[in-house]
Amino acid sequence: MNGTIRRMKLSKPAVIVAAVLLGSVRLGADVTLSITTSIEGGLAASANNTGMSPKTVTKISGPKSRTDINMNEQVVTTIIDVETGQMYMLRPEEKTALLYPVDVTAPAQAGDSAVEVDVKPTGRTRDIEGASCAEFAVNMKMNMAAMATAGGSALPPEAAGMLKDVFIRITGTTWVAKDAPGAADYAAYQKVAARAALSALSRGSAGGTSSALPSGMERLVTGFTEAAGIPYLTELTTAVEGTGQFVGLLQGMAQMKIISKVTGVSTEPIAADTFTVPEGYTVVKQ
Asked: How many other C-beta atoms lie within 10 A of the C-beta of residue 263?
């Protein structure tokens, strides 16, 4: 059982969820967006009961994007070029760049739904950092059994039984600016760049076939199209729902509070070398 829990901590679906909540790969042309996120409780809590505060900077110039996530003094960098169909994930400690081929035209996949998403406007508005924002209510339900098998592998009978009828519920609000500087570019590029990331993850999960991901999974990456614009403030809480002994074990790990705030938006031109693999890196094809 403990081995199952350890595998879930490092699972690829968890990485995808984190990417959505941190707002990565979601920006537009000639825009730089800086976001600070606080994650409290659950897996984010350490022995002294403090959380994590990852900082994300995403830059877009035309068809190219670069996202740097700084978390606990470790930086994860992703570079995407949707025109050439390439996505690089940089590993500074090894001086390597993992190269994933991507297909931004890939359709959504059929199969068992892993994620249900409901995003609706509340009708409320407020100014945040000088930008007029509209509030949207967010309600997501993640099927843990479907998430665990998203890579195309079958679960052992014991693990399948533990995850049956177990769900992660994510609820909260996001305040979105549709008319702020850079918002139009953000919305236009969002779906294309996100599909590139989804394509890369799909190929990596099952030998190059995007059909390995169940339907609904693409919503974790493509973002909330119902709330297109720059999300200046997003507040989410996670909780476990369902039956069985595994629900109790997950309660402490999965219950978290996540708050993401925009700390800076710039529409200044971005240098071309921002989107190239640094000199001295070895490219490794995936």
From this structure: 14
Q: Which residue has the tokens 């309660």?
A: 251
Round to whole Å and give the CA distance between 221 and 21.
Answer: 10
pLDDT higher than 50, residue 16 = no
Do residues 214 and 151 lie in contact, with contact meaning Cβ atoms separated by under 8 Å?
Answer: no
Phi, psi values for residue 129, rounded to 5°: 55, 35
User: What distance in Å separates the CA atoms of residue 247 and residue 262, rounded to the nearest whole number?
Assistant: 34
**CA pair distance 265, 254, nearest whole angstrom:** 31
- The angle formed by the CA atoms of residues 186, 54 and 96, to the nearest 5 degrees, is 85
Query: 123: exposed, middle or buried (C-beta count within 10 Å: 0-12, 13-18, 19+)?
Result: exposed
The tokens describing 264, both together, are 């800076």
pLDDT in tens, 75-111: 889 998 888 888 899 998 899 999 988 776 665 554 4
Task: Tell me which residue has tokens 């081929």.
Answer: 101
DSSP 129-180: TTEEEEEEEEEEEEEHHHHHTTTSPPPPHHHHHHHTTEEEEEEEEEEEESSS
d(CA 93, CA 278): 13
Listed residue (252, 244, 194, 241) closest to 220, CA to CA = 194
Residue 97's pLDDT is 96
Closest listed residue to residue 199, CA positions, set 284, 115, 109: 109
User: Residue 148 and residue 122: Cα distance in Å, rounded?
Assistant: 33
User: Is it the case that residue 209 has pLDDT exceeding 70?
Assistant: no
Out of 3.30.360.10, 3.40.1190.20, 3.40.50.720, 2.50.20.10, the CATH code matching 2-285 is 2.50.20.10
Nearest to 200 by CA among 210, 212, 185, 187: 210
